Amino acid sequence: MRRQQQRRNTTKNRRRSSPPTQSDNRGRRPPNTTATGTSAASPQQRKQPSPSDVQQTVQRIKRSGAIGEVDALVATLKRTRQFDRSAVSAVLPLLARQWETAVELVELMPRHGHTPDLFVFSGLLQVLGKARQPDKALHYFAEIERSGLTPDTHCFSALIAALGTAGRVDDAERHFAQMTQLGVVPNAHCFSALIAALGTAGRVDDAERHFAQMAQLGVRLISGFAEAGRVDKAEHWFAKITTVGRLKPDLISYSALIQANEVAARPDRALELLHEMTHKAESARQAAEAARRAAEESRRAAEAQRQAAEEALDEAGRKVEEAEAYLAEVKAKPGKCHGAIWWMEKELEEQKKYLPSSKGGVAKRG
After folding, report:
1. 248 and 283 in contact (C-beta within 8 Å)?
2. Each residue of 261-320: pLDDT tens digit?
3. Where are the compositionally biased (Basic and acidic residues) regions (predicted)?
4. What's the sign of the alpha-carbon dihedral 251, 252, 258, 262?
5. Helix, coil or strand: residue 41
6. CA distance 146 to 28
7. Dihedral sign computed on CA atoms, order 350, 354, 355, 357
C-alpha cells in the first residue's frame, strides 16, 4: 500500500512539473488574439469600409432582401464615423421604414466635416415621403436653400410626392409653381404625384390641366432628342409617354423619331414606327367615324322621342277638346245633373294641367 501511494505521488509531481502539451491547451485562446492566432484589433484600429464596400453591401441587401443587415451597416458607419456623401446617399434608400435613422445620419454629416449634397437631400426627402412626414420634408427642403444649393428635379419631385401622398395638395402645387419659376423641368414622377393628389382632392379640372402639360412636355422631349440625334433618349421618352394611360405622341413626334432612326441607319425600326403610326392613325379614324355614327344615332333617337312626345300631346289635346264639347252638350240638355257636371268640370280641369298652353292646357298653380 505504501509503495502504491508513493507511485501515485510521483506521477502527480511529474505532471505538475512538465510543460503543458498541445492537448492541454485545446479550446483555450491567448488574450487579445483571434481564432487564427493574430492579434485582435481594437475598435479604433478596425479598418474603415471603403465607399465601394458600402455600395456592395447595399446592393447585397437589396438583392437578398435581408433588411436585418441594415442595422448592422448603420452601426458600422457610426462606429467608423464614415459619414461621407457617397456612404450616406447609398444607405438612405434602405431606411424607408426608419426615417429617424435617416435624419440622424444626415444630421451627423456636418458634425464630422461633410456637407450634404443634392443626392443626399433628395434621398432623405424620398424616405420622409414614404414615411408620410410632410413637415419634416418641408424642413429639409428649406435646408437645401439655406445651404446655398438650388433644388434640382429630383429634390422637387421627392418633395411634391411627399406632400401629395400626405394630402397637402396646396403645398404640392405651390412648390410645383416654384419649380417652373426656377426653370427646373418637372419629370413624369413629379407630374404623376401632383395629378394623383389633385384627383384625390376632387380638383379634376386642375388635374386635367397638369395632365395636358405633362403630355406636351413629353412630346417636346421626344421631338427634341430625335432632332438632336439622341435616338436612345428619344426612344426612352417615346416608350414612357406611350405607357402612361392617355398620353399619346402626335404626328410630329412620330415623324421626328422615324427620321432619327433613318439617320442612325436603323431602317427596320423606322419602318416599324411608320407602320405603327399608320395603324394608329387608321384606328383613330375608325374611332372617330364610330363616334360620329353613335352621335348621329343618338340624335335620331332623340328626334324620334321628341316626335313621339309631340304626338302624345296632340292626342291628349284632342281628347280634352272632345271632353269639353261633350260637357257643353250635357249642360245644354234639360234635366241635367249638376253633380255630374261639377265632377266632369273638375276632371277636365285636372287633365288640362298636364298639357302645354299651346294644346289648350292651363298653368299649374302653386
Report:
1. no
2. 666 666 776 667 666 666 665 565 666 677 777 888 888 888 888 888 888 878 877 887
3. 290-303
4. positive
5. coil
6. 59
7. positive
Q: What pLDDT is attached to residue 351?
A: 76
Residue 283 cell numbers, joined:
384606328
Grid cell at residue 338: 249638376
103 with 130: CB under 8 angstroms?
Answer: no
From 355, 313, 347, 354, select the one nearest 327 (Cα to Cα): 347
How many CA atoms lie within 13 Å of 365's alpha carbon, on the beta-carbon side? 3
Identify which of 327, 307, 324, 311 has the alpha carbon closest to the alpha carbon of residue 362.
324
**pLDDT tens digits for range 154-169:** 899 899 989 988 888 8
**Residues facing 39 on adjacent strands:** 33
Instruction: Annotate 100-115 with b (16+ C-beta within 10 A) or e (fewer).
Output: ebbbebbeebeeeebe
Q: Minimum mean pLDDT among 11-15, 103-107, 126-130, 216-220: which range?
A: 11-15
